[in-house]
Every structure is written in structure tokens, then in C-alpha cells.
Records
---
Amino acid sequence: LSAFAGMAKPVTAIVTPAVKEADTKPAVVKETPKTEVVKPTEKKPEPKPVVVKNEDKPAKEPEHTVIVKNDTPKEEPVTTKNSQVKETPKSKNFSGGYFKNIFADQVKGADISSETGTAAVFKSTSGWEDGKYYCLHNGAASGTIVKITSPATGRSVFAKVLDVMPDIKQNNGLVIRLSNAAAAELGQDESKFDCTLSFSK
């Protein structure tokens, strides 16, 4: 045994390290999250409004005031700033006026007075449409119908006395003042003219 003892080789034990269970598991690799590239949403073009033309009914055009200029020079009356110029309405022929028949009744069996002198005109809105003429007279009572005749034209009108003429300078030398509508039927466009008066006392 001693002989073999020298020949014996030491036995080296190979120790395999213990493998842990955890080491056997495959390594977990964390995946990097993918970054999604978001493309901007394309903006859809808005639909254009559909215009339907109605050929049958054309659109109504706005009304316009047409001013026609007259190149012919026109004489305008000279007025002050505060005065308003109104056109004299055209007179109608009422065959003497509304009070003609009343005059005929008044002079029946009555004394008739006559005067000759200068007449003047006052402006009135009455008489142009109805032939009701009025006057101011100092010799006839209020309500009396006076027949006024223009020797220049040969026409006559019948006017009702409203009152006496005011005692002012403008009435000096006048026998009567009558409405402009009455003067228009007499054919007088003057502010003063000769006349003959007839009326019952």
C-alpha cells in the first residue's frame, strides 16, 4: 500500500457553482415604445354656397327719382329768405261762382247800389275748387253778395262780404278787396285793377 500510496494522484473535485433559478430565466428586454408620427389632419375645403339664378323672375331694381333739367332759363320771383313761394293754382270757370244764385235772390225787389273804382286782391285758399269767392267791402253789410265786373275783360264774379276793409294805408283809395281766386276768374292777374260793383242795400 505504501508503494501505491506514492503513486496515487490527488483527486481534484470539480465543484460546479449552483445555478440559481433566476439565472435560467431569459432576460426580459424592455421594448422602447414606438413614437407614432401624427400627421396633421388635412382641412377639407368648405363647400361653396350654391347660387341658383332665377331667370324667370328678374330681381326688382330699386326705384329712382329722375330729375329732368330744363335748360331754358326761367325767371324766378325775388323773395326774402323767410318767405315761401307757392305757385298760384289754376282757376276754373265757375260761371261767376257759387254765390251767383243767392245774388239774384238778394236783388229781387231791393234797391241796388253801384260803385266804380279800384279793386285789390288778398290771398285765399278758398274758391279754387268750389267757386266760393269772398271779399271785404265798406259799403255792404256782412253776408251781402256783391257782383264784381272787370271792364277790361267783361267778366263778372259774385263774392260774399266777410267784413269791412281794415283802416290801413294799403286800403286807401280802394272800393273792394276780393280773393285771388275771384280775380283769377275775372282774368285779372294784377294786384290792383278797375272794377264795377253792384249789390243790394
---
Amino acid sequence: MKYFPLIWKNLWRRKLRTFFTVLSVLVSFLLFGILSAVDTAFTSGVEVSGADRLLTIHKVSLIQPLPISYFGRIQAVSGIEKATYMSWFGGIYQDPKNFFGQMAVDQETFLDLYPEYILPPEQKAAWLANRSGVIIGRTLADRFGFKVGDKIPIQATIYRKVDGSDLWEFTVSGIYEGAEQATDTSSLYFRYDYLNEGMGGSLGIVGWYVLKIADPSKAAEVGKRVDALFANSQAETKTQTEKAFAQSFADQVGNVGAIVRWVLTAVFFIMLLVTGNTMAQAVRERTSELAVLKTLGFSRPVVLGLVLAESVAIAVLGGGLGLLFALGVIPVMAKALQAFLPVFFLPPRDLVLGVALVLLFGLASGLLPAVQAMRLRIVEALRRV
């Protein structure tokens, strides 16, 4: 700490140059934080997917329904502990722009398959007791200001009632929280029996089945057993892990993680050159001063440490502010983008990585100028004055 005043004074000797260098580093790490949140938004479904969950869909396409009569046969397959089924509703709430997921589910088994959805027992009981009841995620509730007991009218685009009406009214029975920050809490789940009743009691189809298996290492084997049951039928199935299913959706918009990494690599490389050049200029400008320091007894390691400390100070100042700004900006962006990206945050692991990159960036950009300063000979340096 005794050298801090010297480091700080040298750092701000060229105020304008230091300011713009710090600003450049700040923008780089602000970009790092935002892009990390974007990556999380597109891959959160993959990261939190249950390792012990399989999805069974129609072999042709997800949009093709499956007979509900498959349910009992799937439950009897060896290796499956629990199963449930879901159907996409696809209705409109007030305006088509108010998009959010709406699924009809089997209320008796749904929450058993999704323990990451935390619902108070009394709200679950209310849902089971009310045929038109729904449970909604905290993100969705905050987005529209929904509360328990509110009525939610939704205009159907796929399922019309047997009387010809396309308006379905639901009552909020509960609001579920996510067990993890990455858990998607932006959807609405209602009872399949309510949908079936509105359709005249003869719906007979579901969108897909979700299966909980006893041994995740045997996922492929269990999936083959399920698919073998319905081979050569009018509705053949395709069973895969939930993670693989989520990854296939993420891949439709490209490898976001790879894009983020390449962009950040390019940005950091450019900034490494900029900061390294700044430090090299600072060393050249202070050649005579460094010679004087060595004459006064400053050892080579101390001179090396002084220049490195300067570089690290620039990185910490700029990178630290950039990460702090990211922490402030991302929640604002998350609120604005919640209709499209319900999970948008900077994960703690990426924040820790950002801090590590700040230090690494400071050391890497200052290493070459610091070595040059350390190797500087007093006589040669004084000749340059």
C-alpha cells in the first residue's frame, strides 16, 4: 500500500488518455455482462432441464397431437416412476402482443414432475378444487399485476367450446415461484379436464407426455421402450430427454453461446491491444523517471510490480464499473424484454468469471510494458533524456 500514491499519480498523469482507456474497458465489461445475460436467456431452459425427465412427442412434429389413451400404457413402462401430459392452448389475452405460454395439464400429476415450481399447499388445494382454476408464474403475475382470485379471460385460437364460443375464463388459484433464478415463471397452467369439458368431453388428445425416470443413465433405453409401444401405429412417438428437447429449440436461433464467446473474444483482444499500447506509451514517457527510481534503489521486481499495478488499476477501475453498470442495467432490460425473454439475468458464475477476467486482463495488458521497464538499464535510460 505504500506505493499506492505513486501508482495513482502516474495513472492520472495523462488524464484524458486514462479516462478514455478506462471508458473503453468499462464498455467491454458492460458488454460482457449483457451478452452473458442474453446467453442465459436462450440457454436457461437447457440448464434447468431435469436430468430425470423425458418428453414423448409425435414422431412427425411437436404440433401433431397424441391420443390420451397412451397415458396408461406409458405409465406401465419399466423404468418410469411418474408421468403426466400437457397440451399447448395458444390463446390471446387482451392483445396478440401479450404472448405467454398457456398449457392444459393433468392437475393430479403435473407438479410431481416439476418440483422446481414452488406452490403453497393451500393454493395447490384451491387449484385442485376449482375446475376453471389456473396457476401462474411469478414473472407472469408481476407482468400483468395478476393476484390470486383474479379472473383471466383468454380468447382461444385453437380450441373452441362445443357451443361455438372462443372465450375461456380462468380464475387464478395460485402463483408459483421458481426454485432457482433460472426457472421460467412466465407461464399459465390450467386443468386439462376443464378444457375437455368445454370441448364436449370427447377431446381425446394431448400435446405431449412428460416422464420421470428412475435412472437418468438409462434415459435412451427407457425412451426406446416407450417408442416401441407405438411403433407402426397411426401416432408413432419420439422420446428424448428434456434437455435434448430444450437444446433443439435453442439451436433454432443458432449457437448463442458460441456467438457470445466469439464477440467477447474479439472485443477483449482489441481492448488488450489498446490498453497494452497505453501502458507502453506511459513507460516510454517515464523512461528517465524509471531510471531515477532504479538509481534510488528500487529493485527490478518492484519496478515490474509498479507498472503491472498501474495496468491492473485501469482494468479494475474500468472493468469493475462495467460489471456494476451491467448489474444495474440488466434488471431494467429484463423488465422491458420479459414478454420475449422471461429469464434474463447475469448468473453469479458469470459475474465471478467477469471479476477473474478483469484481473487477467490487467495483468496481460501490462505484462510486456512491465517487463520492458524492469529490464531497462539506468545508463541507457538516462541517455534518452
---
Amino acid sequence: QLVSVWRRAEGTGYVHGPRGWTSLACAVVVLAAFPVGAADWPQFLGPNRDNRSSETGLLQRWPEGGLPKLWEARVGKGFSGIAVVGDRAYTMFNRSPHVVLACFDIADGKELWAVPVEPEYRNNKVVENWGPRATPTIDGGRVYAYGPTGVLMVVDAASGRLVLRRELLKEFGGKTSEWGMACSPLIDGDRLFLTVGGKGAAFCCLDKNDGRVLWKAGTHKIGYVSPMRVDVGGRPQVIFASVDRYFGLDASSGEVRWSLPFKCDYDCNIPTPVVRGDEVFVSCFYAHKCLLLKMRPEGPRTVWESDVLCNYLSNSVLVDGFLYGFNKKDLKCVEWATGKQRWVADKHRRLFQGSLTYADGRLYVLSERGDLSLVAARPDRIEVLGEMPGVLGRRCWTAPTVAQGRLFVRDEEKLLCFDVRAR
């Protein structure tokens, strides 16, 4: 068992952290204290980039007084998600005078390190919308972070030591999106995919090990969608988006295999596609539509088109053939195959204009106003199984993370960690 823990620790930073052998001992305690179903959340939208946690053994209904809060940590402005690997959590935020990438111990919320990524991000809009958007990706003992002005930062996950830094948008002569770059890095094997910008460099593929550009393609004004992988006819493609079109690029060469018009008001193409096999769901509130696409070598075929579930700032999740997500304000359940609405939570004031994550048969829902709810993932009716009103006080545009038996939520000031294990 100790050898097993050691091998796991080598890949997660337990052994090489600042506490050395103490960290290894803690790893043994953590593994013993948490259920076999405990899992990591190493990137945007989780381990499989589908907004689903593989956690099991979680509370199926919350106690009357709410979840036990394990700890609270201070963060700053921004909407970067929380990635969790082993005993550590990672996110980004403004901490004057920089945007920082920070690492927290998930046992007690202690900040283990914080490294500057780029100057503090402030656009010309209202103060509530300052800060980074992208979620860090953890892979092979490294953290890959993408800043709001197109800076790629790679650091050692255990220590925060700088491995690589490239100002990609500046190198390629691109312009920062109006609300800042929001693409969360996608890693597939040794390849790192990013939406960047500039002449011939809207979409890029880099070697994750040394940062070399393997290919770049397209001169398009980009939105805020993160790339997704899909297999088409046995060949991997990566789906990218501009402000008015979706693209399928060959993952190896960057060759454009297909494109699809998808015009969004205010150039705000935001939600990331949902992928199941060779089917892809795309939606956007600012496009006033959603589509289910069937991928084919010659290009996608539209299965259905509707305005039933036009995601605003967050992503939907697919569970057992049904999509759950926010159509601007209201939480909905929609049939994947047909686009038929099964229910809408328009009478539940705490399920309002938010984001959600799936784990162990349940939807963890965080409203924009900071209300936290547990909802059964069932298509026949809406069933609320727990509510914690007002757990956060600032604007909440960051989806919850469920990992290692814990629930992580944040706003523009606080990062909270709750225990969600069944007793």
C-alpha cells in the first residue's frame, strides 16, 4: 500500500512539496480518510471535460443546517475555476499588482504558493468583471495557466517553480478579447491546444513539454469558448470557435475539416460544446439558439436546432440522455436526442442564472447570487435535495468543483470548501 501511495504521490506533488516526507504521511492519511470513489478534477469541466465528477459515496440529501464547511480562503477578482489534483487546489485571480496562479492545501485551505502570471487584469468595463477567466490544467506534475492577455504560464505543481512562460497573443500580433482571454488549456497526449488570436494564429497547438508551436491556423476574431476534442471517422479533431463560427480542425495538422456559422451578439460566444461520441451540442444565449450536431468526415449534420437551452455564461451537463443547464435565467432539463424540454425550474428563486456540476446522481447548482443547491438529476421532475442560501456574497460566475470528497465554490473574494461525503 505504501508503494502504491508513493507512486500516486509522485504524480501529484505529495513527495516534492515543501513539506517533503510530511506530505507523504499526509497523503496516507488523506487516502485512508476519504472513500474509494474520491477523484481529481484536473482541468476545466473536470477529468473528461464534460462537467461530470466521477466521485461516489457522496451525500444524496443535505442536512437541514447545510454542509459542514471545512475552510475558507481569500482570493481576488476573477472567474477562474478550481482544479483539484491530490491534496491541492489551483485557481487564478487578481492580487494587485498581478494576476496570480495560486495553490491551496485542500485539508485546511492554507495557501502553499502563488506566482504572478501577468499584470493585474482590468478592462474598461465595470469593476465587477475584472480578473482572469480561464481554469488551470494540471497534467504530469505541471500546471498550465492561460492569462487574460494571452500569457501561457507553466509551473511545477508542487512548488510553483516556473517551467515556461510565453506571451502568445503578443508574439502572434493578436488583440485581447473585450472581456479578456477565457480559453482553458486542453491537453491531449503531448499536445496543448489554445485559442489565441493574431494573423494565422486564431487556433494553436503547442508541444506541452517545451512550448514549441506545432501548428497554428485561422485569422478570426475569437470568443470565449474553450477547445474540445471529438473523434470523427476514427480521427481526432479539435473544435474551436470564433465569434461567429465553429471549426473542426485536424488535431495533428491543424487542417480545417469543417466550419459552421454561429453568429453571436456582442461577439460573446461563451459556452463550451458538450460532446458525446460523435455528437456535439453547441449553444449560446447571445446566438439565440442551440444545435445538436452529428459529426461526419464530410462535415457536421444538424440533428435539431432550437432556442430551448441557450446557455448564458455556464455550461450544460449531459446525464443519461438528458441535458441540464441554464437557459439564461432558468435551470432546465432537455432531451439530448430531440431537444424537447422536460422541465424548467422557473418557480425556484434560488435556482436562478447560475452554473452547475454533476456528481453521484446529483446536480450541484450555484446561482449568480451565491445560493448553493443540490438537485436530483432526473428528467421527470425537479427535486431539490438541499439548499444553502447566500453562501457567497459576490458575483458567482465560476462553476462548482466536486473532488476528493469535497465541494469547492468561489466568488470574487472567497474560496470555500465543504465536506460532501456520505457518513
---
Amino acid sequence: MTTNVIMPALGMDQDTGTLLRWIKHEGDAVTKGEPIMEIETDKVTVEIEANATGVLTAITAGEGDEIPVGTVIAQIVEATRLQPGEAPQSIIAAMSVAPLLHAEDETEHRADSAVPVSSPYPGARKGAFERLMPASPLARRLASEQDLDLAGIRGGGPEGAVLAADVQAAMAGPERASAAIQASADDRIAVSRAWQVMAERMTASWTTVPHFVLMREVDASGLAEMRRRIGLSVEQRAGMRPTYSDLLVKLVAAALRRHPRANASWIDGTPRENREVHIGLAVATDAALVVPVIRDADTLSVGEIAQRRHELVERANAGKLTPSDVSGGTFTITNLGMWGVDAFNAIVNPPQAAILAVGRIADRVVAVDGQPAVRPTMILTLSADHRAIDGARAAQFLAELAGLVEEPWGLLA
């Protein structure tokens, strides 16, 4: 029996994956469930397990290749089918390598958005993948909207893939496009696939989402005292001391429950209610900014949030996040307070309605009963998508959160 090994789809919007490395190699014996390769998508890096037991053969993709989802990149042959002394290469010649598609409607969708070109992948059948011009989904959409031919745009991505920035350069006219093409490769900073996709998505958000920003300085005395009070008990139960981010996840989740519009998403031209509260935490890694998600945050204790956050950050830094770790977020928190930042504006993470930027806690002079006093305060900045939530509703949510930060006693147990 021969089993195909394909480039898997790990997300609904994934078109391609990058083969980072082969854990097993041509001719190696593999066992079903054993990791055989490591791939990178636009969100995560994942080890892919063997889907059969046998000998790994017919490898057609090299490390670093960006490959369309569904393409067969190797095969696993039962050892009983191998003849004594038969070389893996002779098996390769006898095997038919063709990409597998998950569904016919997906095939048609990919074909409609593709440009007829020769497939760079050996054995690809005629149709969707053979016609797929290497390009990011956003680049294809921009090119289609501007009636530009992707085949005529020089790509700056892996294997010459066309990125959104390449399409935008072409849209700006021949002079800018020519200058972009002539830029020295030596000046480019090597970035991961995740970084490229992050850049495209943030560009799309900043240029298409009607942002507005609300800022509020809040007294953090209660928050600091609560962290001091419950820190030891949480540490004893969860094995770690909660951070201010952990406390804020709990408070934000409670505020979102009371103001569900801030927990909404803008999808297909209308705001959609999210029944669950899944809070993403922006984490800077060497590869890119990632946003792992703490699911059902409103139902978790501070200790459970701290433990989950610790696990996610460890996996993020090790490049071991799974698709479920980074999907389904309904609201995002980004905290730069640990870097001494007082306040900043964050970019909304579509399709979410809003994102909260958190600055450092610092002693500042404030008015207390009409007299100057020094208090620890923090600045909370809410960036919101005006299509999903208006200023009044966003202000109500921020006021609710400010009240919880200043008087957190009833929630942070």
C-alpha cells in the first residue's frame, strides 16, 4: 500500500505552507504518528506526523520550499512492497505524484483567483495548482481589485511569491515599481513567512479599517495591591506569580461580558456577536509578532489564566504554537509597559472590533480631592473599528474596564 504525504491545510484561509525541514529523509523507515517534517504557515510552525507506517520515498519538495496546500510532496510505501535492493529513486519513477484537493469548491475558488502559469511542482495535475501564481491571498485580492496581472509583477517573497507590497508598488506607477525591483537584495532583512503575513495583515488593517482611538489614565493602586495580595496564593496553586497581563485578561474578559459589542467581529459587511470571550495576547518572538489566544477567559481564575499564558508564551518562543493556539480570538491585549512605554496606539486585529494597548504603571502626579498627590497610574488605549462599534459604546466599555482596574476586589480571586 502506498500513502501520499501532502502539504496539509492547518487553517481555513491557508493557501500555502513552507517546508522548514525534513525530520525523516528519503529511504527512512517511519511509523504512523511519528514526526516526519516541520512546516511553517502564516501563523504557526508545526511538526507533521506520518499518516502511515512504511518507508518514506518520492520526496519532491526541498527545505525552504513554499508549497500549495494539497500538493503531494512524498509517499510512504509499505516495507513489504519493496523488493530486495530496490532503491528509493526507482520507486519514485514508478509512482504517480499528484496534488490532492480537500474539496471541489475549494479547487474552483483557488482556480478563479489564480493566474495561468506553469506549475513549479513536479507532477502537479492540470487545474487549480498548476495555474496558481505564487502570491499571498491579499496580493491576489489587491491585484484583482486593481485589474493588475500578477504574472507581470516581480515578487519579493519566498520563491518569488508576490506580496501585497509588490502589488502596491506596481499600483503606484512604473517609476516606483522599477525602483523597488532594482533595490539591492543585500539591503533586505531576511524575515519569516509569519513576519511577511503579519506585515500584510497590518497593512490591510491600517488601510481598510476605520480606526478610532480612546485613551484613559487609570489609578493602578488597587491593581497593584491585588497582585500583591493574591500573588502568593496563586503561585502556590498555579506554580507561578501572576503578571499584570494576567490580571488584565481577567478584568477585560469581565468588561467584555458586560459590553458585548466590544467583543464583536466585523465579518461580511456586518458586525457579528461572539458568544465566547477568547482573548489574544500579543507576543513578540524572533520570527514575528504572534497572538496566542486564552480561550473562555471570562470563565477562568487568575491562576488558570497565568498558567495558560505561561504555556502559550513558552510555545510561541519555541515556535511550537498550534493552529488552535492562535485562532478564534475575539479581542486582543498588547502590553508594552515592561519596556517602559507610557502609551501607544495599537492596530486593530481584524475581524475583531477592538484592541487594548497597555502602558507601564508609573508614579504620576494626579488630583485627589482637589489636591496634588502621587499615585501609580497606567494609560489604557483602546483602538476600535468604527464599523463594528461606535465611540459611545467603546467609551462605555473603557469606562467599565477602568472601574474594574481601580476596584478589582470582587473579580480577582
